[in-house]
Specification:
The protein has about 110 residues and is an alpha+beta fold. About 35% of the residues lie in helices and about 30% in strands.
């Protein structure tokens, strides 16, 4: 299959450290959400907590999804000083993290 054109989704799965308070988690989530207002290449942000009954989460408890127009826009976001500063603080609060960037691709049957 050829690479899809269009937006790129940046997905981060996270498990916060046990000693990070719920108030701190809320503060970090609000800070992450606010990046969409501070970093132009970031077009949208969504997040949620695991609600699956399958118990296949491998310890991850939260998901964060950001939307970008291209792979180049993701690279610009990652290098942006505001992101670098936030990521240092955010990642320091995590016990586990997994990041995947992908292009949503339709299946043509």
């Amino acid at each position: 299959m050829e690479e899809a054109k269009g937006p790129v989704k940046h997905v981060l799965l996270a498990k916060f450290k046990d000693d990070v308070s719920p108030e701190k988690v809320d503060e970090l989530i609000k800070g992450y959400a606010n990046l969409v207002n501070l970093i132009e290449p970031m077009k949208a942000f969504h997040w949620g907590e695991d609600v699956s009954i399958e118990n296949l989460h491998q310890g991850f408890t939260h998901i964060f999804e950001s939307t970008f127009e291209s792979k180049e826009a993701v690279a610009e976001y990652i290098a942006h000083p505001v992101h670098v500063e936030f990521a240092t603080m955010f990642l320091g609060s995590l016990d586990k993290v997994l990041v995947i960037d992908y292009k949503p691709t339709p299946v043509h049957l």
